[in-house]
Amino acid sequence: RAASAALVGGSVAIFGALRRLALSLPQPAAVRSRPGRVWRWWNLLVSFAHSVLAGLWALFSLWQSPELLSDIQDGYSVSGHLLVCFSSGYFIHDTLDIIFSHQSRSSWEYLVHHAMAISAFVSLIITGRFLVAAVLLLLVEVSNIFLTVRMLLKMSNVPSPALYEANKYINLVMYFAFRLAPQAYLTWYFLRYVEVQGQGAFLTANLLLLDAMILMYFSRLLRSDFFPSLRKGSAGRDVDGEKFLID
């Protein structure tokens, strides 16, 4: 446990260093001209780095040890354990970044999500159980790569509609493959096979709440990119106070 705590702390430090690096990178004119977007731009760059690293890491862990999928409750791999510690550090770092940057009010949904992720991952690290479930959930980071690219393109007003359009459809496919599908499978598995008591009850409740959040974000994404006529009250809205540009 002490070694795991050190790994989580090291991950927090790594993302702190990445944030400082992001601060030194040039920003698009559309971001510089809107002060409210500056923090969000830096934050998204760090989020993008985590998505690339964690998403590819989750794929590698499952490719390296496919037998893990047959034992979701008690399967274990060193790679998976390190990944959970790594991502725990990111969620802790992002939570602190939101709070100390005074973005809590506009990013409260993400604070809720991070609290769920941190508490669930800490329980996995302590007990050593359901590690495979965490790796499956972290496949979502593959989808987040394209979701974050979408948001960065939208914030920077990049003069390339074709690039945004291509990413829009790739993002939709990845959302189904790496977010909705693993989430649906784990929800089915937990409701069918996991005892609703102790850690199992806690993780099942987290999973069901995450289901609701994912479906809500998916509906926003569909309205924004594919059915803009269904959006309500978004015309002319100043989005500088929002962490992520869904609309």
From TrEMBL:
Stretches that traverse the bilayer: 41-63, 132-153, 173-191, 203-222
Record bears the keyword Ribosomal protein: no
Species in which this protein is naturally found: Atrichornis clamosus
Domain TLC: 36-230
Lineage of origin: Eukaryota, Metazoa, Chordata, Craniata, Vertebrata
GO cellular component: plasma membrane
GO biological process terms held by the UniProt record: membrane assembly; phospholipid homeostasis; plasma membrane organization; regulation of membrane lipid distribution
Assigned keywords, A-Z: Membrane, Transmembrane, Transmembrane helix
Compartments it resides in: Membrane
Protein name: TLCD1 protein
